[in-house]
Specification:
Helices cover 24% and strands 25% of the residues. With 550 residues, it is an alpha/beta fold.
């Protein structure tokens, strides 16, 4: 019998009396204990699952004392869910339900006056403007932009011992901040503390991006890079990350995956920084070289498991016009893989695609938005007078990053859906419900980090989830991985079929292509400059990448 009903049904009257007497208080206590365990579950899932299971079993025994009935729910997710999906730049093509998020750069010198006092009018106007379209904001403050003056506050520029660096980037005169000056470091730290005090947990703001270098993307790929001068030194960066971890208690913040490069960032020398719960964004998502350049940076940040507590996002590649024009094409995107598959592989919550209305219909953009982030299904809904249990599965590809709660007749469960991973199921006891003669109760999912016009939808109990297969690994051998002057590469693959081979240099440019015939073959590489290369072998949906040295 379900939930050990036989213990109740066959037992003597004292058991029934005891259960009936204890039900209200113990059920409420179990409900109260569950949210205390769930945050621990997010951090230590293997240890905590047994604790949660015991609480669920005990609540199940209490619930069995009443005549619980199953509620069938027929509902669908037709709208882009809050804080997920394709993102447009603020005010551009944004009067649409194909998106729920808008992105904007912000300038540091717009939020501080000549005396160094913070003035938030620009931020307020931006957030209100975006919220007025029933969207939430992703903001990124930056100092440096190709071809422009810096956004360092004017009061710092006016200091007699502060001098900026003029250089060339992408062929244009570009100014760079002087990070050797202590006041710039002090301002940057002070700014994020003041910003967090004002906007942490503001529902108009979904996520925050931050960083240094060109466009705050954690690189100066073209220009006068000097650590400690045009780019903050490692010591300041470390202190800055710990500072953000302290001041932001609610708002998820992210840095570029380019911070995996130890030329710019301190994570290699100070791996303890990886314990900080920041997210990542990728500003050339789905570029042709993504599987062997960008993907390695994602992998550096804890094998992409970072999405468990902070969002994975980014922007579609602008490396070529082809990238933008075809990235949302079906079924193969711009380079042989769809956005839906790429998003699933990297647990993407949002992706900036501002130019997509030039190439795709709003229906296709909305479809892509619906493929990102969390999605909830009500697996089971049991109710009785004064109590319910709702079983919820995340059938999306990422968690929700703010507290969200199942509610029955307006009464919330104490169990939060925040951090529920894709494929995970959680039971949510609710101290509200309807007896049969009162009709079916109303089930909603509530979140305080929504705008007044937003809501979280869910698939009903009749929904059948479908999961497309992820790209599989191709079992192959490539040897030797350090080549001699003969440059002979031996290749073995698992099946006697044609295999596509592409060799890429260290910056992701394809330099050689060939076709492997049969299970074994030998390929003589052309006369390439000495250095690190990546060999990709691909057969249909199977792929492997091996690093070689010439």
């Amino acid at each position: 019998m379900n939930r050990l009903n036989f213990l109740y049904n066959m037992g003597p009257s004292p058991i029934k009396i005891g259960v009936a007497t204890l039900q209200g208080s113990l059920f409420a206590r179990c409900c109260a204990l569950l949210p205390e365990v769930v945050p621990f579950h997010i951090a230590c899932p293997k240890v905590s699952r047994s604790i949660i299971a015991i609480l669920y079993l005990f609540t199940g025994l209490l619930l069995s004392a009443q005549d619980y009935r199953d509620i069938v729910i027929n509902s669908d997710i037709a709208d882009v869910q809050p804080m997920t999906g394709i993102v447009f730049w603020d005010g551009q093509n944004t009067n649409t339900d194909a998106i729920s998020l808008e992105f904007s750069y912000m300038l540091y010198d717009d939020v501080v006056d000549l005396e160094g006092n913070f003035v938030w009018d620009e931020v307020e106007d931006k957030l209100n403007d975006i919220a007025g379209r029933n969207h939430q904001a992703i903001l990124r403050f930056r100092y440096t932009y190709v071809g422009r003056q810096t956004a360092v506050p004017q009061y710092i520029k006016n200091l007699p011992d502060y001098e900026e660096i003029l250089g060339q980037s992408e062929g244009e005169a570009t100014w760079f901040p002087n990070w050797s000056h202590p006041e710039l470091q002090a301002f940057n730290t002070r700014f994020y503390q003041a910003f967090a005090e004002r906007y942490d947990d503001d529902p108009r703001l979904a996520f925050l991006q931050t960083g240094f270098g060109l466009w705050a993307e954690y690189h100066i790929y073209d220009g006068p890079f000097e650590l400690g001068v045009t780019f903050p030194d490692m010591d300041y960066q470390s202190r800055f990350f710990y500072h953000l971890d302290t001041v932001f208690q609610h708002t998820p913040w992210s840095i570029s995956i380019d911070a995996a490069d130890d030329t710019y960032a301190p994570f290699h020398d100070s791996p303890e920084l990886l314990q900080i719960r920041f997210g990542n964004f990728d500003d050339s998502f789905m570029a042709e070289e993504h599987p062997y350049v960008n993907a390695l940076n994602w992998q550096f940040f804890e094998g992409n498991d970072r999405y468990r507590f902070s969002p994975a996002g980014g922007e579609f590649s602008y490396y070529t016009d082809w990238d933008q024009a075809h990235v949302l094409d079906l079924p193969d995107g711009a380079h042989g893989i769809s956005f839906e598959e790429s998003a699933r592989n990297f647990n993407i919550t949002y992706m900036i695609g501002n130019d997509q209305p030039d190439y795709q219909t709003m229906e296709r953009i909305k479809e892509a938005s619906l493929a990102a982030g969390y999605k909830f299904q009500i697996k089971r809904f049991q109710t009785a007078a004064g109590a319910s249990v709702v079983e919820v599965e995340n059938v999306g590809i990422a968690p929700i990053y703010y507290p969200a709660f199942v509610a029955v007749n307006g009464t919330r469960s104490d169990v939060s859906l925040q951090g529920l991973l894709p494929g995970e199921v959680i039971q949510c006891p609710v101290a509200a419900g309807n007896a049969p003669d009162a009709g079916d109760p109303v089930l909603t999912i509530e979140c305080d980090h929504l705008l007044s016009g937003q809501k979280i939808d869910y698939y009903g109990t009749t929904y059948v989830a479908t999961h497309e297969p992820q790209q599989r690994e191709l079992f192959a051998k490539i040897y030797p991985t350090i080549l001699s002057q003969e440059r002979l590469l031996n290749i073995e693959v698992e099946d006697a079929i044609l295999t596509q081979m592409t060799v890429y240099n260290s910056i992701g440019q394809p330099v050689f292509r060939a076709v492997i015939h049969g299970k074994k073959d030998s390929i003589v590489l052309p006369d390439l400059p000495s250095g690190i290369y990546f060999v990709r072998l691909q057969v249909a949906d199977k792929m492997t990448v091996v690093r070689i040295v010439i």
